Amino acid sequence: MSDMNTKTYELDQEWLELMKQAKEMGLSKEEVSIFLKAAGNNKQAMNRYNIL
Length: 52
Description:
With about 50 residues, this protein is mostly helical. About 80% of the residues lie in helices and about 0% in strands. It contains three helices and no strands.
């Protein structure tokens, strides 16, 4: 695998794991989407959830 493909694969694996965890926590797709949109628009949201 090229370096770029390896990084993409690793990122995809991280996203898959995050989505699995969200599902296990009982979060809906809509809740995850709302969080990601808020986090993208507001880094304070990320700090609130200890992501940074």
